[in-house]
Amino acid sequence: MNYAIVTGTSRGLGEACAKLLIESGMHVFGIARNKNAKLDHFAKENHVQFNHIECDLGEPSLLEKRMEEILATLAHVEEVTCVYLINNAATLEPIDRADELTDAMAITLHTQVNLASPMLILNAVLHASKNNDWPVIAVNVTSGAGRRPIPGFSAYCSTKAGIDMYTETVAKELEISGSENKVLGFSPGIMDTDMQEEIRNSNEAAFHEVETFRAYKRNGHLRQVEEVSGILVDILTDPANAVSGKIYNVQDYF
């Protein structure tokens, strides 16, 4: 039986990915602060399990405990065919010029959610894979912001750049060790999500490109999460063609 771990399943891309995985017959662990009753209901309709794991990714000690619980549950499953992981959850805040970002707690929390937590989750899954002989295929959701500087997004650009380098480095380590496990990145582009609304509500002093992002919505240039999640899940669940270490870009599929 295939199992999946998806972060940020309360809404947006995480919810859409979890739904597709459930539809394909996978049992899903959804890590999020808020429970998604729709996924619970959908899993029952598809005769699989959706396990909501309540966790704030900004709390590393709680995340460590939740991952121990998930992996202990999987260790007692008689046969795990593959463990799929989608590190999707992220935050944009704080959005502002660097010379205005002086709140240490805000920057620390941002870095924990966007960079440290995905690392901790994947590291734990890969470690468990060695002890239990589970194949692992993981996707770290990144952003074009990790590849170009966007004024006002210094924290977000930096953590997404970190996710890209982490993905590429872990892939090299897996290759050197002879592991068949895979880790890859996926840049979903601009989608019609709450995160985009958050960007549009920024002020120009804090975020220089805010009017550009407002125009994306106004002109219908935002993609729907359903079409983006379909591409991501297709890449994730096609081990023959998924290239470990590659950063996939949704724009290549349109």
What does this structure look like?
The structure is a single chain. The protein is α/β, with parallel strands linked by helices and 254 residues long. It has one domain (2-190, 225-253): Rossmann fold (3-Layer(aba) Sandwich). It is 46% helix and 15% strand. It has helices spanning 12-23, 37-45, 60-75, 104-132, 154-177, 194-200, 210-218, 225-236; strands at residues 2-7, 27-32, 50-54, 82-87, 136-141, 182-187, 247-249. A seven-stranded parallel β-sheet has the order 3-2-1-4-5-6-7, sandwiched between helices. The longest helix has 29 residues, at 104-132. The mean pLDDT is 95. InterPro entries: Biopterin_syn/organic_redct, NAD(P)-bd_dom_sf, Sc_DH/Rdtase_CS, SDR_fam. It comes from Aciduricibacillus chroicocephali.
Short structural description:
This protein has 254 residues and is of the alpha/beta class.
Task: Name a few traits of the molecule.
254 residues, alpha/beta, Rossmann fold, seven-stranded parallel sheet, 8 helices, 7 strands
User: What would the CATH topology be?
Assistant: Rossmann fold
Provide the spatial order of strands within the biggest beta sheet.
3-2-1-4-5-6-7
Compute the average pLDDT: 95
Q: What class would the helix/strand composition place it in?
A: alpha/beta
Helix content: 40-55%
Number of strands: 7
Count of domains: 1
- H/I helix tally: 8
Uncertain spans: none
- Radius of gyration in whole Å, from Cα? 18 Å
Shape: globular
What is the strand content?
A: 5-15%
Main sheet overview: 7 strands, parallel
CATH architecture descriptor name: 3-Layer(aba) Sandwich
